[in-house]
Amino acid sequence: MGIRKKNTKSPPVMSHEFVIQNHADIVSCVAMVFLLGLMFEVTSKFAVLFITVQYNVTISTNGPEETAVNHFHHGIKDLATIFFYMLVAIIMHAIIQEYVLDKIIRKKHFSKTKHSKFNESGQLSAFYLFSSGWGASILLSDNFLSNPSSLWEGYPHMLMPLQLKFYYICQIGYWLHALPELYFQKTKKEDIPRQLVYIFLYLVHIAGAYILNLNRLGLVLLVLHYFVELLFHVSRLIYFSNENRQLGFSVWAVLFVLGRLLTLSLTVLTVGFGLANADNQGFDLATGNFNILFVRITVLAGVCLTQAFMMWKFINFQLRRWREHTSVQTIKKKPGPSKSKAKKDKANGVNGVHSHAADSPRSRKEKSS
User: What is the pTM (predicted TM-score) of this model?
Assistant: First the structure.
């Protein structure tokens, strides 16, 4: 499948430039190998590990009509599934870049600085929109919002519905794909540390909620966070098209602070009170129970430190915007020279030229003669 347009002058095969220009096609071929593996009986068992969700558990429900419900838990085989959907994320990234963002950039003629920021916001806006919508549908279907106590009641939540487990698989796969994208997108060296920090934070928090069986709390916090971040990146896209439209940043600033407060409140309520007062406290890998004091303190400390770090970055961002706005307003309010003063200066300038000419050695010589 041709995703990237080929230049007329092709770089050497397997060179850095060749891999960067054709990385989507290369990754598509690798993903196609796994899909073709499903067609043959010899390789189907191996290919299924990468494509389908593993660790299925069938539970029969009691009622007038006994029905079987499928649930899933996590395990080491999930790494293969995460790898495959990381490849899918790379392909989707290239499609959005080539057929949406690049076309807009060619029309708008952005500078190099705006070019990289527009690409970043465009990619993240698409991901946040999809993830927040998908996550909200899971919350509504499983009634997590109508019953907040379900965030900690019945812990450990080792068994997950298919949609919830697949959601976490895709989330981890997406943020892992962001690492090779730093190379594929030729990210500037000064931007790499910043992006590595937030990729690392996403992976630690999502994988932590997944492994520690805090998947319900993690889902609620992800949807909340993704919605606020979606508003920021959409506002930045609108700002790039028209720099006078900055209302979205003001709305985002309010929701960002509220989002941090809600995140801390839900985490403290679930981990600090709900799990701390639960009956089944202890450490048991077989049942997935991590409800011990050390784990609870680590989770609370990790979330609190992350929220404090985000607020520090937020305050610095707002101060920088305020300084830029103040400097622009100062330049606009600075009075320019009036017309009468300009005419007077011009007249003085002409008279000064004549006076200097009169004081020249030649004029003095003519006067003496």
Answer: 0.85
